Amino acid sequence: YVNELHLTRLKGTEGGTYTFHVSNSDVNSSVTFNVNVN
């Protein structure tokens, strides 16, 4: 499947690879994704 997130204040220089980390008392998880700026 495909998801889209529209970030209206993102600058052209802010594209790249990002990693989102989350954790709680039970689990730690992360996901890495690419941001393409058009």
From TrEMBL:
InterPro entries named in the record: Ig-like_fold
Protein name stated in the entry: V-kit Hardy-Zuckerman 4 feline sarcoma viral oncogene-like protein
Gene from which this protein is expressed: KIT
